[in-house]
Write a structure and sequence with these properties.
- This protein has 276 residues and is mainly alpha-helical.
- It has a single domain, classed as Tetracycline Repressor, domain 2.
- It has helices at residues 2-11, 13-28, 36-60, 62-68, 81-100, 104-122, 130-149, 157-177, 179-184, 190-219, 225-248, 252-275.
- Helix 2 runs parallel beside helix 12 (252-275), helix 8 runs antiparallel to helix 10 (190-219) and helix 10 (190-219) runs antiparallel to helix 11 (225-248).
- The longest helix is centred in the C-terminal third of the chain and has 30 residues, at 190-219.
- The protein starts with a helix and ends with a helix.
């Protein structure tokens, strides 16, 4: 039972739910969920890719997590590194098998994003900006993937762009949280290279752009009043609080809370798009 809980924790179930919902909602906002089997298959594919990426991330981050997150399943000794690697490979293979039935283009996207996320965990995560951009692009592609499942990828432009900016800001926030472990293991992230103040300014700018950009679809009548109401009540307050909190309480533990708050708010953002 302890190992089962460890594998569940490694896969990050909230992230899996967000991946599944992102693809489903991306298809829904195009105006159709048909053919439904393709939408469901695309959603499950994205979920397996996300699971594989989350687990391989912990596999490569073992040394850093011993400092930054010692209670994670691998550094805590609940799951061995070899077990984690097997779990990750299995998840990716399941994703690619399912993607094969969606056609060659969607298979190539799922395969390419999977490989990119492996390279991210192995190397790109420890570079300036490239790793942050990789995760943000992969997240945005989940929406494009949903649109492609119903042959309407262009209709997912706004959700994909929101996801990109949202995750980009959160990625810099997570870098700032993990500075101590990253420094000890020569991971040259933005926060390690440029320091706390520059990171906070960068986070503020990214989220400010996001706040402005999210209002555009309502102004040009792409999304309606329900969308506006949900983002004003459920998204804006969280992002503004994260900006304030990251400046006021820049300690790693507090930044971790803000990062988790953003993760939860992703679901609110998805609801805004759906009902909008």
């Amino acid at each position: 039972m302890r190992k089962i809980k460890g594998f569940i924790q490694l896969s990050r179930p909230v992230n899996l739910l967000i991946a599944f919902a992102s693809v489903m909602i991306a298809a829904a906002v195009t105006g159709t969920l048909q053919p439904l089997w393709r939408v469901v298959l695309a959603s499950v594919t994205a979920t397996f890719v996300t699971s594989g990426a989350n687990v391989i991330n912990d596999y490569f981050d073992y040394d850093i997590d011993k400092i930054n997150k010692p209670l994670r399943p691998i550094p805590a000794g609940i799951i061995s590194r070899s077990e984690a690697l097997t779990c990750s490979i299995t998840s990716f293979i399941c994703a690619w098998i399912l993607a094969w039935f969606l056609g060659p283009v969607m298979f190539l996207i799922a395969f390419g994003i999977g490989i990119l996320l492996i390279v991210y965990s192995w190397w790109l995560k420890r570079t300036i900006i490239l790793g942050n951009l990789t995760v943000s692009i992969a997240t945005a592609m989940a929406f494009v993937f949903g649109g492609m499942a119903v042959n309407r990828p262009a209709a997912t432009f706004f959700p994909a762009s929101f996801a990109f900016l949202f995750h980009f800001g959160r990625e810099i926030l997570k870098d700032l949280q993990d500075v101590e472990g990253d420094q000890q293991h020569q991971a040259i992230t933005f926060s390690v290279r440029f320091g706390r103040r520059a990171s906070l300014i960068f986070i503020t700018v990214i989220f400010a752009v996001l706040l402005i950009w999210t209002i555009i679809p309502y102004i040009i009548d792409v999304y309606g009043r329900s969308y506006l109401l949900i983002i004003l009540l459920g998204v804006y307050p969280v992002i503004l609080y994260v900006i304030y909190g990251s400046w006021k309480y820049p300690q790693p533990g507090r930044l971790g809370i803000l990062s988790n708050l953003l993760k939860a708010d992703m679901l609110v953002g998805l609801l805004a798009i759906y009902f909008g």
